[in-house]
Amino acid sequence: MTTNALKEEELDRLAWRCVRSSMMGATALLVYFNSKYGWITAPEYHRVKGAWLEPIMPALKPYLPQLVMALGVGSLVMAAYCGLRYLWISRKG
């Protein structure tokens, strides 16, 4: 492959990473603020049990808000990094 084709492939990969990371970060922050303010309530699913979650949820429950916030901020930082790399590589020529 030529260097232009490799550059275009890397730019495309960075753009998709930026979009996916920003969507995941925005969604995690929406989940965090929804849990805090209760904008949307989840429906009751009687068929889904989540038996595999029951043993670990008591240990995770106090840390869930911090974990979700860290995931959201980390994803937004990754999106910013990929966006800046995209701009830097595209301007580099």
Outline the fold blueprint.
Layout lengths: L2 H35 L19 H4 L3 H29 L1
Task: Provide a descriptive summary of the structure in words.
The chain is mainly alpha-helical. Helix content is 73%, strand content 0%. α1 (3-37) runs antiparallel to α3 (64-92). The chain is elongated. It starts with a helix and ends with a helix. The model has no long low-confidence stretch (mean pLDDT 89).
Gist?
The chain is about 75% helix and about 0% strand.
SS-based class: mainly alpha
Q: Major sheet, described briefly?
A: none
Q: Helix share of residues?
A: over 70%
**Shape estimate:** elongated
- Average predicted confidence as pLDDT: 89
Strand content: under 5%
Number of helical segments?
3
User: Would you report the number of β strands?
Assistant: 0
| Low-pLDDT runs | none
Based on CA atoms alone, the radius of gyration comes out at 19 Å
Helix and strand sequence: HHH
Terminal residue distance: 17 Å
Which terms summarize this structure?
single chain; 93 residues; mainly alpha; 73% helix; elongated
